[in-house]
Amino acid sequence: MLATAAEFEVRSGGRVAIEWVPRTLKDFGMVSVEELAQRFDFIVMDHPHIGTMAESGCVVALDELLDAQVMETLAANSPGRSHQSYRYGGHQWALAIDAACQTSAWRPDRLSELPRSWEDVIALAEGGEVMWPLCAVDSAASFMTLTMAFGEACATRDDVFVSREAGRWAMATMYEVARRSDPICLTSNPIDVLEALAHSDSFTYSPLGFCYVNYSREDHSGHRVAFGEIPSKDSSRVPRGSLLGGAGLAISTSCASLEDALEYALYVASPQVQSDLYYSSGGQPAHHAAWADERLNVASGNFFAGVSPVIANSWTRPNGPRFAAFQNGMIEHFAQWYPHGADPDAFLDQLDRLFVDARVDAGGRS
User: Are 333 and 350 in contact (CB under 8 A)?
Assistant: First the structure.
């Protein structure tokens, strides 16, 4: 984003200057975007916040200001549902600029055959080779992916977050892998895991975590990390339901230079920038032009070819106005999941209560 801002300033002849202020990975998923919209013209944000932002009126409905054909083209060239995840209430509230989902990650120089099922992952963990990001944020994310591996999506009913059968299996799977793995997993995020894979020989495989092309690029300083399919409930099933991530670029309604802001947003999301400056500056593009570019695929160590089938079958979280608040509560709840892993019913009961309370606050389904 720093690189695109600098280039856009040059293109404007110095008339438009954009300064980006970073926030932490945790804050990206949890900090109130409504508060950010009061302070900044642009927000790079996570799609579950879209409904809250739309209902609060703090961001611009982009489809009302941009050409319909442009919007249709961006949607048609979206990896997975990256573009569509920022749509709510019939309007588009952000442009997808980063496409990601949970994938497996491994050291191709040390692991020749990937686990196909979660039973295979448990067996590999017995040998101390597995590192899984299971801090609270990523435990909650992996739980949602695992329920899809079981065969059920979360948040489809009003009275429970997920069926007890699917929830028990997901937590038991997390527990069986975690208790065989280094305890550091319980406080690790995806970057911690990828740093360990790239810069040490302590681990060879991670079953689930958000993917980062930076670690598979040919110019990466450490060992190359490969990304691809996630394990299935059993080896006979096709892996489906990886949790969609990524990032979108929204414009605040408080922006005083709306025309310039719209031009910059389209610039960043354009196929030319996504497949050139955005990638070359360390970004993970959200346009098919980049994902289908064999030059970039080679330069990324086969990242785009490996992740494409995973993101195509990914699962999108709800983005209604109360889901983001519920997700924050769920993440705090998952800070204590491990002690309940062997006997999860009380934990799942409380998760359901958090979910039902969020629905009641919203006056019904988000």
Answer: yes
User: Which tokens in the block code for residue 298?
Assistant: 């080679």
Q: If we measure between CA atoms, which residue out of 51, 38, 61 comes closest to residue 265? A: 61
Is the pLDDT at 96 greater than 80? The verdict is yes
- The structural domains of the chain, with segments of one domain joined by +, span 2-100+244-312, 111-228
Query: What is the rounded CA–CA span in Å between residue 97 and residue 47?
Result: 12
What value does the mean pLDDT take over residues 265-270?
Answer: 98
Contact call for residues 94 and 71 (beta carbons, < 8 A)? no
Q: Superfamily for 2-100+244-312?
A: Periplasmic binding protein-like II (3.40.190.10)
Residue 55 pLDDT > 50: yes
The reported pLDDT for the residue numbered 94 is 97
Closest CA to 41 of 29, 59, 61: 59
Identity of the amino acid at 181: S
Average pLDDT over residues 277-303: 97
Q: Quick one: how far is CA 50 from the chain centroid?
A: 14
Q: What is the DSSP annotation of 114-159?
A: ---BHHHHHHHHHTT-B----SHHHHHHHHHHHHHHHT--SS-SSS
Name which of 96-105, 125-134, 155-164, 356-365 the model is least confident about: 356-365
